[in-house]
User: Fold these one by one.
Assistant:
Number 1:
Amino acid sequence: MIPSRLHAALDAVSAALLVLGPASMKRNAGLRAPLTALGLGVAAYSLATSYRGRSPGRPIRMDQHRLLDAAQGAACLALARDVDDQTVRTMLRGYGAFSLAVAAASSPPGPTGIAVPAEAWATDLGDDLACLRCGIVNVAFIGAAGAGDRDWYLVDAGVPGSAAAILQAARRRYGASRPAAILLTHGHFDHVGALHHLAETWDAPIYAHPAEHPFLTGRQAYPPAAPEVGGGMMAELSWLFPRHPIDVSRHLRALPEDGRIPDLEDWRWIHTPGHTPGHVSFWNAGTRALLAGDAVITTRQESLRGALMPQGHLQGPPAYFTPDWTAADLSVRRLADLEPRIMVTGHGPALQGDALSERLHALATTFRQRALPNDSRYLRQPS
Ligand SMILES: [Zn+2]
Ligand SMILES: [Zn+2]
């Protein structure tokens, strides 16, 4: 984490080096124009930046500034490829890499959350539950291994491109049997990537909360991401993530109003909005197993490292994609009150043990301090 004052100083030095450096180079005349232009560019966008978010006259926010930093760093790396002079090439590469590192390290801290040591990660989810990590997200299987045709359920459908991995895991656990249905916690792109393909392949119904249907029938896009929440590259780049609706109307059904899931005795769905309006979690009171979706997660999803290499970090929903924090707060309380013994979340490792319930209560009672980001357009104006 680089303080904004140091960041501003580094920008000034970078601009000066880029403008003055080429003037002292005797060879590599071809580099002078692009480097001078880059230097002037850095100076211009730095002068227009509100470094501490308190200069209303300056139009560039810090999250946008960092993307510009990353872009000029990448431009230097690209320029370096065509340079024959070894010293100049090394300097350009070093500067490019340094700029990318500064861009990444200047992200404001994301939600504080609660660290969860690896001893508390679940190793055994019980007979009727399994979890599969698909890149940055988890999917779950409800139903004992070897369950018959239409006798098990898939929860969520991974990032785009994960159909093969999900089908393979399903075949390993259930042979040629097809699921009774696909249950959705919500319709974000990283939870519905393989949905259409899987529903077609298995000819299976998809159950989701009615409030989530507009995003699953092509009618409505999710609200824009809030990259200003900070916490790392995932947040930074979140404005690029797809938020347009998919259309799986042909297979889509509403979850029954009474909390039941068709033909599935032991499980109930629980409305846990905030992250999305129709977000639900799934709960088995007998085994005290909870599938929380993104209502609470167990890794720092705002950072690229946290997303790719789950760390054990209990927090509220992924901050960049959460537009209603009041509802999200109430949802975490609701889940904490269940006092689960096993919990699988949309992102991060599954957790188990007595301390799980204590940690969930701690998150719920200190939601404002531990789950809220320092900044988000939706803290002022929920959507
Ligand atoms: Zn989500
Ligand atoms: Zn998610």
Note: Residues 171 and 177 are 8 Å apart (CA to CA).
Number 2:
Amino acid sequence: MTSADRPGHLVTTATLDARYLPDVMALVETCAAHDGFDAGADEGFVRARSYPVPPEIARQTADLIWMVGDRVVGYSGTYGFGRDEIEVVAVVHPEWRRRGIGLSLINEAIGVGQRAEVSRVLLVVPRFSVGGQALAERVGAKRSHSEAAMVLRDVPPGGDDLGLGLVAKIANISDVAVLGEIGSSAFGGNPEEASAISRSSIGAIGRTIFLIAKGGENVGMVSIAVDHGAASIAGFAVRPEHQGQGIGRAVLKWLVRRLHGDGIAPITIEVDVTNDRAAGLYRDCGFREDRIYDYLAAAIG
Ligand SMILES: CC(C)(COP(=O)(O)OP(=O)(O)OC[C@H]1O[C@@H](n2cnc3c(N)ncnc32)[C@H](O)[C@@H]1OP(=O)(O)O)[C@@H](O)C(=O)NCCC(=O)NCCS
């Protein structure tokens, strides 16, 4: 196929404003209905693109919209967390597939990564998506890791208390350094990068990070993003020297009871498919595996 056969043109925006947001949302819904996935998480992602982008990650963030006439038929979003990589999602309207639009969007997204000078561009592809997997292969992407999205099915019993002498407070900007330390001690990486992730979350619309203390010492953290009544939990970490004492289980049970009590649903959390320990803990707290996403690293030349 040559570019002459490919209909339409690309529009690039830094945030999805009112001109494009409804059409991109409608596109995601159409693709979800066609491909048989739950549009909730993807809609949340797209809606979040209409909020201002923190300056640290502005270079890593782009919305790529494929138009045919005045119709939005394709969309790709790149997003970064202040790390040395960006993640990319893409959808093309079912009636406009196999005409090179997806490939153009992915190549543009790789260009965003090149300009932001990151080492990795990760394509986030649902495991079941034949087109997505084939497109990733076409651009030479290699599997980095896979994550299962887990959804809360059964609310764990218990009261409003965290138990174990634990105290939770909502983190603010003065906590960024300690959040960075906790994050890097639990996930690896350097504390500055981990701090940048927390900094970009604090104050962002719908985002809350809880800092967990025990006996006056900060021992863990957990971050939630709430959008239109649905929540995703991320950045869940307990310092290694405090692991294995039931802190993670107590925090997660407390958090999901609290979110559920506020009428929030669905509640999702993602876990690396090789991380049996975390997945077991999440199951114990009432979560069940939903779909699997492959993270495929594209060659960025
Ligand atoms: C993945 C997706 C965006 C592809 O969009 P598209 O516009 O159809 O992709 P293209 O036409 O540019 O395809 C480029 C190449 O990818 C491969 N490919 C794409 N879809 C394919 C399919 N269903 N079967 C086999 N190969 C496919 C082919 O090599 C194709 O080149 P060719 O048509 O010359 O053979 C689209 O199928 C989609 O929206 N899927 C659901 C969401 C998703 O999985 N997104 C993940 C992408 S990060």
Note: The mean pLDDT is 90.
